[in-house]
Inverse folding.
């Protein structure tokens, strides 16, 4: 059990639950995915191609002599790869003849796919179908067909038709005098669903000293892997570095996959490198293989996983890609090849600098607004304030709490390039986030009264500010229904701009910007609380309607109150946050506010996450909160936490199977992070036994430890996202051959809209650029993943001396007088200069070896133990005292040189990368400890801790204990020892 990781976690990680906040408050059409008929066991479902347009369930050809029979009425693609070998398209057809002519009517029928913006159709001919393609006799003489899919596909070997991107069944060639009816249209097969790769690993990798778990799973029909041996294999040398026995008892049968699941633990592997897991003699039943399994080359005897990495900072590249995603989503700027590489493109919508209101779109002299900059919200080009605010909240929290993680990223954007006019001497991550904040600020009404428009969206190629009650085809909306501002959007803006102030206020280059954010947030709060301002609960314009309820607004107001309380309290302005605190005290028990503590509703798109963020802002760092509010949060959060952690799944998360809906991956990421925030607010460090595996386990799940054995981030692993639903990359900037940028995080499995993809909830996913209900990118999804990954990274990185900060000192740049400033003076000469930098380099690169280590622990000022190893002379000295510090015993002995050498090889990296202090300011007295590390060049690194420990603490102490156990000597009373030495 990695206890050293848990001690730091509580003081480093805060997360915000904003799943609802991330999604546009829009009135969505009801999804009508393809229905299915149940089949026994693992047999492929029968897909029912129902008509949602006719109440009688019949498809009728249109005046152009054909019809598009749509298997998925979301107009998204689906995969029929599993149905290829023995599957059929089945239907009944009948002719309704306008002119009475004897005999049936002929027709053409085929399959159409859509991939990377290209539609491809292949048709059955009478030769392929093995029968004439004719309807039944008119007047309800139905004729049945069952057409083999394989025969059709094989007849067009040079076609670009894609079984993985099946779009629709196309009917044509119907005579003008006829209307054909199609009913009971199905796609079926006697074959089984595919077995996804047996071994599921985090395809990016595992931190050197972290717990390392994978899963192996299979349909029961294959037999059992219980008792078999699994090996961790070095990918470069093919050497087995670790082996273990697979448990004979699987976890409970998994609803998400329908498979038996077993955990593979290989935490003992700590040597950096590239690995894979192998089960050499699996002995599973080859007769259980489906045709798709055989097509994929699934081996049932020698089973191997994809490759993964073990090392330090193993997620740095992943986080960089997740953040650079936002640069690729930028609007209002040309993406230059220097920064975007092969994805360079022109500004797709340069006219966003002059946007009219929808109500005034026909007026050539209309006032225009500049809404340029920001990020395209998702796969489309809209800009929505509510999702933008929720996105920013996650990103701001991620940076605020773990800045060292982001400051080490090489983002390669214009703002980080000193040669670019856009260069800013500030963290690149904050410059990228500011690109979206700048856009959000532009949505304030031109009067600067604090009110915000809800969105700007496209009608064709032209963007408009959404400002009317409904979408009007004329330009005559009544005055009462024009220029509408949104209370919900304004509350969102107030909250996130107040938070932005907290993050940007201490960055010199963005000091003025921070003040702009705060002043705008205060104006927005004042507008919200002016009863004369009408609440527009529904606003509709260019292409959708944005609606919210009073309950939604209550939650957003609570979020805004908490964020403004925190910002105003920290700001050097003549203003008290009493109004916001009074609001919190008055509303903290409102039903709409406390909805965030409902263990089920907290996972819903309409959950109370934003009010949870209000609690967070109000309580975080607040030494004098309202005691009733604090006590209420403590009780409710603990109840929520207990319920949530009581339902772990088989994949390392605590996410319920029923939650695999549209956008589930975002909520999965945030649900795991949510458990950390309450523990920080209440305790400073986590009191629960195993909170970390849910955070880290969720990240593993999203990167490959899932029913699909699939990484949901493009470019993050061998079996990861290859396609992305995005108008940019399927149309505006489509590469040849097609390619999506790395770092795009997708929506995830969604059985509510895609039951046709699998009968198992966790497998209803399709990696297609025309399947938006599982494979679209969203700015809020990436933000959730960034929050999750950076939180895990913050715990896994020992924040060694900040080289960048030291460089600033050497260049004469002013630094804050923080508690660690003295740690830059490595040679204790009271000056941070090039000598310290050289010394740091020599230590960090291993030019000087450790010559001695002293570990001291104390409590209430009394030294209770001290252990000293002199590696130069192979000597060990141990001192023990009682709780008052009174000496009890001492021990001295000789350590075998070979054991000392083994220790230095294993432990030196951990000791070298220790930070200079680990302090939990929320606990007084308790346990204090010190480590002095002496190097062969004479430098002594001193590390101090108080009620907090480095991540590697347990491992270091275990190695230290193992070493000292070899010491040969005698234990004697201290006085005797002193006499002997004298």
């Amino acid at each position: 059990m990695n206890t050293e990781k848990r001690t730091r976690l509580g003081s480093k990680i805060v997360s915000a639950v904003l799943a609802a906040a991330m999604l546009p408050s829009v009135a969505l059409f009801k999804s009508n995915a393809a229905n299915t008929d149940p089949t026994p066991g693992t047999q492929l479902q029968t897909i029912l191609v129902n008509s949602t347009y006719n109440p009688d369930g019949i498809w009728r050809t249109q005046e152009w002599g054909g019809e598009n029979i749509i298997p998925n009425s979301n107009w998204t693609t689906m995969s029929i790869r599993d149905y290829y070998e023995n599957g059929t398209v089945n239907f009944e057809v009948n002719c309704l003849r306008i002119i009475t002519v004897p005999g049936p009517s002929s027709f053409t029928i085929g399959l159409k796919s859509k991939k990377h913006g290209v539609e491809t159709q292949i048709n059955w001919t009478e030769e392929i179908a093995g029968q004439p393609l004719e309807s039944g006799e008119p007047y309800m003489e139905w004729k049945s067909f069952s057409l083999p899919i394989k025969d059709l596909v094989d007849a067009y070997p040079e076609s670009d038709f894609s079984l993985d991107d099946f779009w629709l069944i196309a009917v044509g060639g119907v005579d003008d005098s006829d209307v054909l009816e199609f009913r009971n249209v199905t796609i079926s097969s006697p074959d089984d669903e595919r077995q996804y790769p047996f071994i599921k690993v985090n395809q990016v990798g595992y931190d050197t000293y972290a717990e390392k778990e994978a899963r192996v799973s299979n349909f029961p029909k294959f037999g059992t892997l219980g008792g078999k041996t699994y090996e961790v294999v070095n990918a470069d040398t093919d050497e087995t570095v670790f082996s273990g026995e697979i448990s004979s008892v699987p976890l409970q049968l998994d609803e998400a996959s329908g498979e038996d699941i077993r955990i593979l633990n290989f935490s003992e592997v700590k040597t950096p490198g590239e690995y894979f897991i192998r089960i050499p003699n699996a002995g599973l039943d080859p007769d259980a293989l489906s045709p798709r399994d055989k097509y994929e080359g699934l081996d049932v005897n020698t089973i191997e996983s994809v490759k993964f990495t073990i090392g330090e900072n193993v997620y740095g590249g992943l986080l960089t890609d997740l953040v650079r995603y936002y640069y690729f989503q930028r609007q209002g700027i040309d993406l230059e090849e220097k920064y975007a590489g092969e994805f360079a493109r022109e500004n797709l919508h340069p006219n966003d600098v002059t946007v009219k209101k929808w109500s005034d779109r026909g007026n050539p002299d209309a006032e225009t607004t500049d809404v340029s900059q920001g990020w395209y919200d998702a796969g489309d080009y809209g800009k929505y304030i509510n999702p933008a605010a929720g996105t920013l909240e996650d990103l701001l929290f991620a940076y605020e709490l773990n800045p060292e993680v982001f400051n080490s990223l090489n983002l390669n954007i214009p703002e980080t390039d000193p040669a670019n006019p856009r260069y800013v001497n500030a963290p690149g991550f904050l410059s990228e986030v500011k690109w979206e904040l700048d856009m959000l600020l532009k949505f304030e009404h031109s009067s600067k009264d604090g009110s915000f428009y809800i969105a700007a969206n496209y009608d064709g190629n032209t963007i408009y500010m959404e400002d009317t009650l409904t979408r009007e085809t004329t330009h005559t909306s009544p005055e009462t229904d024009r220029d509408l501002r949104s209370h919900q959007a304004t509350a969102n803006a107030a909250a996130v701009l107040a938070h932005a102030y907290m993050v940007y206020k201490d960055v010199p280059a963005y000091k003025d910007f921070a003040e702009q954010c705060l002043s705008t947030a205060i104006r927005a709060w004042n507008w919200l609380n002016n009863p004369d301002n009408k609440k527009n609960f529904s606003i509709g314009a260019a292409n959708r309607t944005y609606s919210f309820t009073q309950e939604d607004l209550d939650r957003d107001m609570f979020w805004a109150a908490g964020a403004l309380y925190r910002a105003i309290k920290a700001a050097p302005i003549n203003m008290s946050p009493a109004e916001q605190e009074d609001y919190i005290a008055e509303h903290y028990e409102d039903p709409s506010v406390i909805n965030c503590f409902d263990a089920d509703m907290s996972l819903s798109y309409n959950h109370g996450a934003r009010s949870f963020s209000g609690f967070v802002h109000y309580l975080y760092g607040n030494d004098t909160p309202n005691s009733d509010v604090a006590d209420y949060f403590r009780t409710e959060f603990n109840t929520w936490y207990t319920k949530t952690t009581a339902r772990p799944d088989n994949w390392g998360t605590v996410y319920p199977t029923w939650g695999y809906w549209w956008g589930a991956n975002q909520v999965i990421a945030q649900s795991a992070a949510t458990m950390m925030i309450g523990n920080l607010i209440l305790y400073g460090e986590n009191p629960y036994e195993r909170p970390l595996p849910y955070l880290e386990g969720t990240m593993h799940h999203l990167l490959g430890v899932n029913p699909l054995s699939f990484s949901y981030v493009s470019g993050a692993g061998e079996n990861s996202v290859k396609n992305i639903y995005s108008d940019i990359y399927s149309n505006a900037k489509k590469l040849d051959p097609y390619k999506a940028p790395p770092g795009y995080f997708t929506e995830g499995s969604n059985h509510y809209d895609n039951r046709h993809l699998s009968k198992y909830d966790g497998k209803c996913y399709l990696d297609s650029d025309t399947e938006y209900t599982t494979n679209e990118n969203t700015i809020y999804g990436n933000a959730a993943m960034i929050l999750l990954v950076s939180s895990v990274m913050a715990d896994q990185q020992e924040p060694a001396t900040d080289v960048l900060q030291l460089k600033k000192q050497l260049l004469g740049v002013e630094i804050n007088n923080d508690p660690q400033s003295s740690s830059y003076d490595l040679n204790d000469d009271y000056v941070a200069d090039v000598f310290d930098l050289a010394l740091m380099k020599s230590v960090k690169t291993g030019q000087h070896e450790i010559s001695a280590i002293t570990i001291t622990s104390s409590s209430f000022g009394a030294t209770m133990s001290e252990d000293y190893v002199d590696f130069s002379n192979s000597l060990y000295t141990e001192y023990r005292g009682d709780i008052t510090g009174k000496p009890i015993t001492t021990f001295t002995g000789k350590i075998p040189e070979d054991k000392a050498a083994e220790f230095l090889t294993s432990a030196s990296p951990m000791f070298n990368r220790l930070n200079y202090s680990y302090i939990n300011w929320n606990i007084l007295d308790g346990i204090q400890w010190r480590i002095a590390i002496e190097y062969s060049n004479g430098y002594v690194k001193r590390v101090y801790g108080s009620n907090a420990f480095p991540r590697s603490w347990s491992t270091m102490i275990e190695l230290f204990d193992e070493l000292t156990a070899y010491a040969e000597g005698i234990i004697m009373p201290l006085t005797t020892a002193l006499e002997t030495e004298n």
